[in-house]
Amino acid sequence: EAQVTQNPRYLITVTGKKLTVTCSQNMNHEYMSWYRQDPGLGLRQIYYSMNVEVTDKGDVPEGYKVSRKEKRNFPLILESPSPNQTSLYFCASSPRTRSYEQYFGPGTRLTVT
Amino acid sequence: SQQGEEDPQALSIQEGENATMNCSYKTSINNLQWYRQNSGRGLVHLILIRSNEREKHSGRLRVTLDTSKKSSSLLITASRAADTASYFCATDSNYQLIWGAGTKLIIKP
After folding, report:
1. Do A109 and B41 touch (CB under 8 A)?
2. How would you write A42-90 as a 3-class SS string?
3. Percentage of chain A modeled with pLDDT above 70
4. pLDDT tens digits, B40-62
5. What residues of A are in contact with residue B97 (Cβ under 8 Å)?
6. Which of A31, A47, A98, A108 to mutate to test the interface with B (most CBs of B within 10 A)?
């Protein structure tokens, strides 16, 4: 089944404790991205990747890191999480660029206390 | 700043009625996409309409695009309880894909 998977689905952590949210797609898509969703603000892009070893900042990259060592994986790293990073996070992929249909993962609900 | 802005923010209708929601944007676009999100879940792509298209259909969905007014509408005909969800438009301009805050649609039985 073609899909985007994210882990974990739910995470409660404390300020400053490094964490990684994994994202994997099995559709051989070139383009992958991370979004955060906050009430009333819609989706805001954090980082995106056009292909392996190519990543770029989105609208709200501060406090986040990403890497794209393999085509299928695009982990999101929070080196020192803060409470303002409490949010619902989505990974998405598409065949080539943002101009194509985006396939979304199920989401990761992160709470930073 | 948000480019795509959906209107209304929330819409509640009876099952079987038609639901219309709108999306306005500010700059020129390559395409506009509509997505559905069931509560707290991942978004699901509905329709993509290109800037040179005026109307597109998919099942009970009809999307129109008016580039002169910089607006799009999504019509869901003969609504069902399963259509209860939030609907988002995303506008693709030269630099990025920008999302609106969404319209929350509730279908009452």
Report:
1. no
2. EEEEEEEEEECCEEEECCCCCCCEECCCCCCECCEEECCCCHHHCEEEE
3. 99
4. 788 999 999 999 999 999 999 99
5. 45, 98-99, 102
6. A98
